């Protein structure tokens, strides 16, 4: 079974902290599935981007309108669609599920703090400063007990991570069939 055959109707959220590779891996996964990729960073209102650029963590009140836009993209886009969104707390994922109103899959890109920090330090021109990494790690609630979620390591090279994501999508799709 190809990646496309196993995920024709998939609506996927690639989640994780900043520096986990959501954009790179998510766009690679969308390409492998023959679908659309949307970077959730592009959905943030200017006020959120400005706040994070100043090194200030977003509050839940800041996030709710953004999460509604993420859910709208998932609901309105023909599948397969992959959206990169931190979705760090279960409450955020539940909000996306509720507002999207369709079956979703959440894939957490997971890795050690030192690898994430190194990636952030090497990234230029992004609004998210390295100083906010620890607050994101502290906020992260791993989706270990969520039936529509899987966790994928970011330690391997990007092509392997993308392949692992496609395998996770097929596995989650098979459990729903």
TrEMBL record:
List GO molecular-function terms, semicolon-separated. Answer: ATP binding; gluconokinase activity
| EC number annotated for this UniProt entry | 2.7.1.12
Which Gene3D superfamilies is this protein grouped with? P-loop containing nucleotide triphosphate hydrolases
Q: In which pathway does it act?
A: Carbohydrate acid metabolism
Gene Ontology cellular component annotations, sorted alphabetically = cytoplasm
**Entry keywords, A to Z:** ATP-binding, Gluconate utilization, Kinase, Nucleotide-binding, Transferase
Q: Which domain of life is it from?
A: Bacteria
UniProt GO BP: D-gluconate metabolic process
Presence of keyword Membrane: no
Catalytic activities = D-gluconate + ATP = 6-phospho-D-gluconate + ADP + H(+)
Q: What's the family?
A: Belongs to the gluconokinase GntK/GntV family.
Name assigned to this protein: Gluconokinase
